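Wait, can you check?
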Amino acid sequence: MDNKNISLIWLICGPSSAGKSTFIQSEKCKEITSLPENTPTIMAHTFQSNQVLNPETILHYNMLQSETLWEKMIGIFSQNGRKKTEFDFEKIPSWTSIKRARADIKAVVLVCSRDTLLKRIKKRKFVEAKGLNKQKLYPKAKWIKMISSVNLELLYRQWCEELKRNGIPFTLVNSETDTYKVIENESEMLNVIKQENTKYSKAKIKEILKRKVFEYQRIELPYGFYTKGADRSDTRDTIFPDSLDGKSLLDIGCALGYMCFEAEKLGAKKVVGYDLKKKRFEGAKILKDIKGSDVEFHLGDIFTETIEEQFDIVLFLNVIHHLPEPVSALRKLSHLAREKLIIEFPTINDIKFKKTVSSFERSWDEFPFIGVSEINTAKQTFVFTPKAIERILMNHDKLFRKIDFLDSPMDDRKIAICHK
């Protein structure tokens, strides 16, 4: 092969919002690549292996550009809890085209933590793409979901292995800041990826979890720690869209704040949680501090307090059956909800309720019934059929225009998503 006809491609790669475009314009890029001013940049998804190249070209490459690849990169767990995902980069057309190009290829891999990527994604408005006649809106919801779900450490490790297999020399660069410090090895790379937005050390978090009991909800913490409690991720996925960008949310009976933290992660601009139990409130505040969160937690009874502020979304999950006056509570919350009130409630098929009655017909669930339960034995006040909730909120007071009823991941419970 005549080397005089061989071009040089510099592959600037990283996930969305790793800072590829900014790095390409930086002095550090010139220092690492030795490329001259105005070296042409091509977006990788438009690249063709047979296209005519300049002697030197920059290729802007998103490591997560393929949704098919992304689906393979979400953490899939085997029965023993270990991730078993492998990435098949060979199935990405643009990557195949790049490898077939008549060019020498070198790469810069921009390394970022998940927290930094998510913060940048939430601030973005437009897609950075050459050749567009007008600016294209950046799909925040898609990328928040991708970056939140992907096994980022595995992505970077296997991407480095892919470059090695193809004989492509690469430089690792820390793109957490615009100093762009060169990363010496892959162990240091993993330390950058694992950076957590917390002032707590790993040892301190471990000591707190050992000393204090955090009940009820499983909440992820820095360094791979988590609280012992029920995994409510199925409910989260049922009630939340892919993005809550710019929304405000109020969670009644928030416990340790699981849904609050998840709403914040999805881009909610203001999140407030209320709980009556002092132990849970104190636990939520500790977890907030560990996570470096901006969620506001309050200890108190929202039904005896005067609250003027409205929220886009109000959560009322597994609380209604503990209240002595549930109908008045629903009316109050309906006025606090600007867009949606989301209720999770036990139906009359609830096993605790059924134990309090001498006879029971499952078909009763089809009627607008409210079941009066027993506080001493069942620890409940009332249970509801979906039609009862619908009549209270749409017939008696016409508080909502539509209610969608969904099966809850919890047995014999329903979720009502009430739309203004």
Q: What stands out?
A: Residues 73-84 have pLDDT under 50 and may be disordered. The longest strand covers residues 337-346.
